[in-house]
Task: inverse folding
């Protein structure tokens, strides 16, 4: 299994541009999570999906952020328009069920976003 | 609203000694806790977990202790090895993570 695959690994964009981050979860996993890592706040949960349906998007910082999961094997996180304060590492994670005591979530390697 | 707090951003220990990483939480409804380890340029990986019905879970050199009355858990690594140098995240009920503690183990 290739694990959770995120693309791109690095993204540099100008303020005001649209940015789309992509994630392919592990086959068979039915829960998918988007996290943002910053120095100040650590790993923040942005949104999670269960069976392709958004369950909790209370962590999405503002309307500029949107996430979709059109099918079980693909999800996107879009920022439009992007701002310098959005610069962070964005992680996607997946699991079989939202509660995983014994194995935790499987994370991708992250996308480092820099907005200049 | 930080429901999970790791108040020490960094910790440095000597190889062979014990590393103790701490985590506090605010919500008494959390029913399990996990620790993840993260190396640079990689995603976090699951390390060890504990259910709220237990007060200790051990896996090799790693032990997690849970004090529900204090809403506090800790991760003990004994003996510490240079390869343990990483950022450690505490997570509550899967989804809520702390800010992380960077552990450096010096040879």
Result:
């Amino acid at each position: 299994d290739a694990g959770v695959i995120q693309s791109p690994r690095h993204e540099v964009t100008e303020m005001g541009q649209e940015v789309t981050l992509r994630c392919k979860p592990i086959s068979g996993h039915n829960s998918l999570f988007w996290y943002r890592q910053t120095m100040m706040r650590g790993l923040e949960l942005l949104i999670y999906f269960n069976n392709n349906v958004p369950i909790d998007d209370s962590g999405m910082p503002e309307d500029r952020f949107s996430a979709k999961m059109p099918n079980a094997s693909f999800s996107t996180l879009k920022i439009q328009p992007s701002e310098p304060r959005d610069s962070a590492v964005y992680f996607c994670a997946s699991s079989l069920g939202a509660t995983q005591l014994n194995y935790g979530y499987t994370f991708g390697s992250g996308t480092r976003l820099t907005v200049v | 609203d930080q429901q999970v707090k790791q108040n020490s951003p960094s910790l440095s220990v000597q190889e062979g000694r014990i590393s103790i990483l701490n985590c506090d939480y605010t919500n008494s409804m959390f029913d399990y806790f996990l620790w993840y380890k993260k190396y640079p340029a990689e995603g976090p990986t699951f390390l060890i977990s504990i259910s709220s019905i237990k007060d200790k879970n051990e896996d090799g050199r790693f032990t997690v202790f849970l004090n529900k009355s204090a809403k506090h858990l800790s991760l003990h690594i004994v003996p510490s090895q240079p390869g343990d140098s990483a950022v450690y995240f505490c997570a509550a009920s899967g989804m809520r993570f702390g800010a992380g503690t960077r552990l450096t183990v010096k040879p």
In short: The two ends of chain B are 38 Å apart (CA to CA). The mean pLDDT of chain B is 94. The interface with chain A takes residues 2, 6, 32, 34, 36, 41-46, 49, 51, 89, 91, 93-100 of chain B (CB under 8 Å).
